[in-house]
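As described in the Methods, two query proteins were run sequentially through the folding procedure within a single session, without resetting any intermediate state between them. The first query and its resulting structure tokens are shown here.
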Amino acid sequence: MADSPSIRILDPSRCHLGEGPSYDPATDTAWWVDILENRLFELPLREGAGPAKVHALPFMASDVAAIDAERHLLSAEDGLYLRTIRDGRLSLFCPLEAGDAGTRSNDGRVHPSGALWISTMARDAEPGCGAIYHVAGTRVTRLFSGLTIPNGIAFSPDGATGYFVDTDEGVLRRVALDPATGLPEAEPETHYDHSGGEGGIDGAAVDAEGLIWTARFGGACLDAYSPAGERVRSVPVPVRQPTCPTFAGRGLDHLLVTAAYEGMDAAERAADPEHGRTLLVALGTRGLLEPAFRLDA
């Protein structure tokens, strides 16, 4: 089922590879990154608050996770970094594939337990070089390997099910988890097979009813999948390459959606006037706020 909810462009900036959006309800502020341009964006969601403030980073960062009112966690090319919001000061929290200069971080999401699932991939998307890790405090455990573009990390509201996808393969998977830790208790199973379909399943977020909302990179839409594994809703968006959603807004009834123009030539960018721009999509459904990362998880 396709529909067309209200959508607004948050900011005129275009992201080469926008990713990792996060929302702070205390300040009603959206955060997201441009991986390939080493940029972090900050923008209050109230009307007229733009343009976004842009913070230059000394590395590629792919995901922003809340910690507390003073800090957030950035997933970067060689590890996880604490960033002080007030002054932008960065400090390494723990390394992540720091010895492999050919990889970088990619998609991430905090589990209800406070642990982080974070993926890595080859900078040139070489097949089989990607992995997904579980980070509890500074304890890093590799969960899955042999992936190419690991994405779609999300969790059911009760934390008992995890979701992920290898965008290159196109199969959204689910795995039973220990709700208290976010660690797998079984082998992954197919949730929805999109292999061969238009575009690729990218980032994901789960709403209060357990629907898994995914960005379809190259497909100009968002898709919602039921906990039973059915595609139940598709929402067209005005960017060809949406990358990652997260729930935002005072009522958590919008999706903040990043986008990219990576790989698009001049003609393709001209045919996609809003390419790379970040969106706010009114869904008419209530979402879940991503939990804060626990430093002592």
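Immediately afterward, the second query was submitted; its sequence and tokens are:
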Amino acid sequence: MAKKRKGRAINGVLLLDKPYEMSSNNALQRVKHIYFAQKAGHTGALDPLATGMLPICLGEGTKFSQFLLDTDKTYVVTAKLGIRTTTSDADGDIVSEKEVNVSAEQLNTALDSFRGTTQQIPSMYSALKYQGQPLYKYAREGIEVPRESRDITVFNLELLRFEGDEVDLSIHVSKGTYIRTIVDDLGELLGCGAHVAHLRRTAVGNYPKNRMVTMEELEALLEKAEADEVSPSTLLDPLLLPMTTACDGIPPVFVDDMSAHYLRHGNPVQASNAPEDGMVQVFIGDNINEGEFIGVGFIDDEGRVAPKRIVVAQ
């Protein structure tokens, strides 16, 4: 007999403003506990020293976390010039210290080289895996393993402040881009070294910044619910965004109840409004606002909608 999951079958996406010095996994587990959710997953870890937007998917929403992993992201970073570290951030050991003698013109010229599509070699202190182990585990043992360079795109790179040995940047990047690597490479270009002093993620895809919620706010709502003798869900659940928001940008198709039944049993179906190829969001009904979201599919070789990530019927 299968063991029943503990917790509520609550579905949605919470935009957590991850606090400083908390790991993404600890933040995830705390949110899962606060919501008493059966399942929870985050959508791309932030380093403990970083703050900002960490979308946390609850329940069936975890099936669509990959789409948020694959989306572009925006950060505000403070680079400290003159000091290079092992981890390329303030948590690492100092590798070198050099005098900072950089002009605004030199800085702007260096920044130009990062704009657009370039190649990046991931940091040894990233969570990418090599032979089943995260790179950072090798790095902590002093082992360097081969990493292939890969294409990244910096859609926008804005210089916000340059004072003394500190540079503030706003960076909008494609998936898989390591800001610490950009900062380390910038320091090498300038000849003085650099590391990340502060990092904040301000956007994931098109999620609105004003919907972010701090851990303190969640804790306060729990206390208020207890004081008012009401269910915490009445105060917490309105903070969740629909799980369809994790699939932003994927075109919708609409099916009837019978087709939805077949999709839920793993069978492809015809949909009159389906595109020629690619991924699709699937709704029962004839519009997004009133239709029931049943998951994400893809167009197969015969032009049918085939299931990929399907929501369990509630």
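The longest strand covers residues 150-163. We note this only descriptively and draw no conclusion about the first query from it.
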